[in-house]
Design a protein that fits this description.
With 485 residues, the protein is mostly helical. It has 25 helices and 3 strands.
Length: 485
């Protein structure tokens, strides 16, 4: 994360950085003052939710429904094979060129875009997710905290957030730890070797059960180790927070050798996600040149479809809509089938001022890809661009019947009601978006604004009143739980 989050963690945990303008406790739940409080699953979830509020405000947060939906599909495919623990996971991407991934309390797993691009196969990316999932299902962070004997719950919170900070800036976090409390704290910023081996073992099992190539794990880690040896002073952050030993690699190799070889083909979605991220790197002109060169020289390992898609994205980013349209034509010629291509085609129509054309494309794509959230979001936005807010409201209402826990769709609904001048419904929809993101005080504020809006019928006002009582009770319950030992 950026220094905003990191400095807060260091102040709270090690007391060596001047206090930031915000309170060090802001954004973190008050979990009580008992010296012997256990790091329970409920506590893990509350800490995870609190840190996620910070992450979503960070500029590195990648608000891309296609990338994040892909990560969640792969992650949920893996986690569904776990026997140890049933819980919800949320996978998300951070725009960061470094090779890193991290698991947080409560099942939140982040992946840097640099790591996605460094994975040469889908099985390699899946191996990292499987490893992080295993850290969560085995409750490694909780076990580390409970074993550490830290006296104050605030120390547990500080260490949890410091571990998160170490994912992005391992040197800074570890250096602060050594300056503050010595090697004892530093050692707890890294998972123990036993935990790493356990995550390897269980991660391999998840990979195999999910139909991936288990050799992806050893292959990726071996490349990381080689990179770390070549650039010792600039080793990947993943190696510094997940120490990779010769014994670990040997143990992985022994387990893999006993399993039959399985060739696994990368999905088109994996290739398209990587191409999209690659097109967003560096300058737009450099991105165009890279894809053009690879296509001309046929120097690419994946499909031509992914290369054409990447070039189309780079062209659009460079402002050359006509050239992007030509690449879309090439994708159609290749008979490529993917929801990501349909959303890109709709994006082109909007850039060309053809909102009606974008609506037509996305309406045709919806029944073909009914679970694609990017298509649903894009359709609402295209309808708003076409000045059809009433139709947009209908789309949000129908969508929320199937996906009632989607904060982004609630937010789009709030935007649409705002354009229609329906203030009560606008604030109520925004309140639901905040509530789903764990921002209960903000949800209460929106519901209070809905009460004062002066519009809406008796039934709608009664719903707002009832929901406000629920949210206030939730706030009170959370405050009460936080004070319990």
């Amino acid at each position: 994360m950026k220094l905003h989050l990191l400095s807060r963690a260091l102040v709270l945990g090690f007391g060596i950085v001047a206090a930031p303008p915000l309170s060090v406790a802001e954004g973190l739940p008050d979990l009580g003052e008992a010296a012997q409080t256990e790091f329970s699953p409920a506590m893990e979830r509350r800490i995870g939710e609190s840190v996620m509020l910070e992450i979503r405000r960070d500029p590195a947060w990648l608000d891309d429904p296609e990338v994040n939906s892909y990560l969640n599909r792969i992650g949920n495919r893996l986690s569904s094979q776990s026997e140890e623990m049933r819980q919800e996971f949320e996978f998300f991407a951070l725009r960061d060129p470094t090779l890193n991934a991290f698991a947080m309390p409560g099942g939140y797993i982040g992946v840097h875009t640099g790591l996605i691009l460094a994975a040469v196969s889908e099985s390699e990316l899946a191996s990292v997710l499987a490893h992080e999932i295993s850290h969560v299902t085995q409750r490694h962070l909780a076990r580390l905290m409970n074993k550490s004997g830290q006296g104050q719950v605030t120390s547990l919170l500080a260490l949890a957030v410091a571990i998160l900070a170490a994912r992005s800036s391992p040197d800074l976090a570890v250096g602060a730890a050594m300056a503050g409390q010595g090697a004892a704290i530093q050692n707890q910023l890294n998972y123990t070797r036993d935990f790493e081996r356990e995550a390897d073992r269980i991660g391999l099992r998840l990979l195999e059960r999910s139909g991936f190539d288990i050799r992806g794990m050893s292959g990726f880690f071996e490349r990381l180790q080689k990179f770390g040896r070549l650039y010792e002073n600039n080793a990947p952050g993943y190696l510094r927070t997940h120490p990779l030993t010769t014994e670990r690699l040997a143990d992985m190799g022994n387990r893999i050798q006993s399993r039959p070889y399985k060739q696994v083909t990368d999905s088109l979605e994996f290739q398209l996600v990587r191409a999209k991220l690659r097109a967003q790197e560096g300058t737009s002109r450099d991105a165009v040149t890279e894809f053009e060169t690879r296509l001309r020289d046929r120097s690419f390992a994946g499909s031509e479809t992914a290369m054409r898609y990447g070039l189309a994205q780079a062209r659009l980013r460079d402002g050359n809509v006509a050239a992007a349209e030509r690449e879309l034509g090439e994708l159609r010629r290749l008979k490529a089938v993917s929801p990501m291509i349909e959303t890109f085609a709709a994006q082109l129509r909007l850039k060309q001022g053809d909102a009606a054309g974008a609506v037509k494309l996305l309406r045709a794509a919806q029944p073909r890809f009914p679970q694609e959230r990017a298509i649903a979001y894009g359709l609402v936005e295209a309808l708003l661009e076409a000045r059809l807010p009433q139709e947009a409201i209908k789309v949000t209402e129908d969508d929320l019947l199937s996906y009632p826990s989607d904060p982004k769709m609630h937010g789009l609904q709030a935007k649409t009601y705002s354009l229609l001048g329906k203030r009560l419904q606008q604030h109520r929809a925004q309140a639901e978006a905040y509530a789903l993101l764990g921002q209960v005080p903000a949800a209460v504020e929106q519901l209070e604004l809905a009460q004062k809006s002066g519009d809406g019928n008796f039934y709608e006002q009664s719903q707002v009143d009832a929901r406000l009582r629920e949210m206030k009770k939730r706030m009170a319950d959370e405050a009460k739980q936080a004070k319990q030992k």
